[in-house]
Fold this protein.
Amino acid sequence: MATTKTTAKSTKSTAAKRTTAAKTTSSKSVTASKASTAKTTNSRGVVKAKSTAAEGLKELFIDSLKDIYWAEKALVKALPKMAKNASTPNLIDGLNNHTTETEEQIARLEQVFTIIGKKAVAKKCEAMDGLLKEGQDIMESTEPGAVRDAGIIAASQKIEHYEIATYGTLCAFAKTLGMDDVADILHTTLEEEKQADITLTEAAYNTINFDAADADDSEME
Ligand SMILES: [Fe+2]
């Protein structure tokens, strides 16, 4: 009899599995977005709404915007200090020009927040905070002149490369989310960051690094 009961249970459980499988198949046939927004119950029985991949990406996009908004605001305060510490005229000009550009980039980010219907909020960017501290350390540990200028260029280029990576990602996110107008605005900033990086490289190769090397040579003699 025990065997019969087990068989009966097993048949029941197989039937239940089939029903579950049928339900799963029918839910799979529902559109992807509907399926992924379906509510699920976790182990505690609390109902949680699943977000779609698009919603997740949009959240990440907004979070990254807040991050770079903080970064640009911190940079616009740091650039004039870097210009004050620099000696070579073309480096000073480059840093001052980029201060003006950064003010415009902040305004562009505020425009983006308006377009997407979100308040412009800055969230501390640990990466920019670290890069700016590194720049500050270089300025504090060098004498004014060619070597300090070379250090300022090195720190600024790390910052520019970080910004290029960030704006490149933000452009890709905006395009993926179908926000072409936002992507265009962010692309303008991306191009400015690339140009700023080129200007710094030219400053380094044209004069400053050679002067720094000469200064080192004379110190060694
Ligand atoms: Fe910037």
Observations:
- Helices lie at 2-28, 32-36, 53-85, 89-115, 126-140, 146-176, 180-220.
- Residues 135 and 152 are 6 Å apart (CA to CA).
- The chain has a mean pLDDT of 82.
